[in-house]
């Protein structure tokens, strides 16, 4: 009897896992990949693709049908839709299909790689269907093109990269005023080394990006055609910034509503054990942002994928697996415009030139197509 493995999500986690299952497992394993987007989105380059004229969409969006066309229909199926209800006790999941109908799929194993959505439907991640993602990219490009002043809310990885792109293309030449808001005295999370955070701030300032520190965004309103960004400083004082455009680069919503409440933590992420499985269900695997074992960051995803595909052979044979070693080491490569970069590997801050070569030049788009086709995997 064939074993149906349902992979929920066709992003940086779901795509390589689906390829591996369709290629490396025995003929009795059938893969069903489920996602509302029929194009794979290389969202690592999202901060650059939203800049008008900086990068074409063909560099970041790839047809899933084409990428998986080498597999036979009895080995692989793509289902365009979104998981609506996971019933792990019955080994079944209900999919709300893009055409408005529903479909129940029985599974032997399910891999949850549904990730998260960005605040305000920003195209830092997939925005629903591929058509909606393309529309979101187009809309933001148009808004950026028309704006003379832009405020980027949030100084995490995405915020710094977006501000870096805007600074390189506009602020450096004085074409537009770019401001970034940080909740702390420095950009990036406090778990990142101070030297890396300081470098990120200096590089932004070299691009003439204005850095507002120790401020949290308490509201965004409109007044006379401008955006009014209301800030609350750490000393409780209130500040208002006016700009033509406000770009949120903070806050995410985990795509896990389909799972039973007892499988989710208070943030909405799914509980994981040291086998990357749901603690209660040994045939429910979770990888990437949807799981709560590690920080929600793309850099840790490759380790999870490599572990999982190596263990699948033993899992399908007798269910025995080695435990996953969740490495606490921080891995960060941060692009600050096309010409500069910084980052961290453990307690080492690599040379900017190295990180520029590895990431900032192309934002990974030089290998994104091969990744979509299963020729290459995501590398830390």
Give the topology.
Elements: E1 3-8, H1 14-24, E2 29-35, E3 39-41, H2 46-49, E4 61-63, H3 64-67, E5 76-87, E6 92-97, E7 102-106, E8 109-112, E9 116-118, H4 130-146, E10 149-153, H5 157-171, E11 177-181, H6 194-206, E12 210-212, E13 215-223, E14 226-233, E15 238-243, E16 245-248, E17 252-254, E18 277-278, E19 281-286, H7 301-318, E20 331-335, E21 341-345, H8 352-360, H9 365-372
Parallel strand pairs: 1-2, 1-8, 2-5, 8-19, 10-11, 10-16, 11-12
Antiparallel strand pairs: 3-4, 5-6, 6-7, 9-17, 13-14, 14-15, 18-19, 20-21
Structural features, described:
With 380 residues, the protein is α/β, with parallel strands linked by helices. It has helices at residues 14-24, 46-49, 64-67, 130-146, 157-171, 194-206, 301-318, 352-360, 365-372; strands at 3-8, 29-35, 39-41, 61-63, 76-87, 92-97, 102-106, 109-112, 116-118, 149-153, 177-181, 210-212, 215-223, 226-233, 238-243, 245-248, 252-254, 277-278, 281-286, 331-335, 341-345. An 8-stranded mixed beta sheet has the order 7-6-5-2-1-8-19-18, covered by helices on one side. Strands 12-11-10-16 form a 4-stranded parallel beta sheet, with helices on one face. β5 and β6 (92-97) form a beta hairpin. The chain is globular and about 65 Å long.
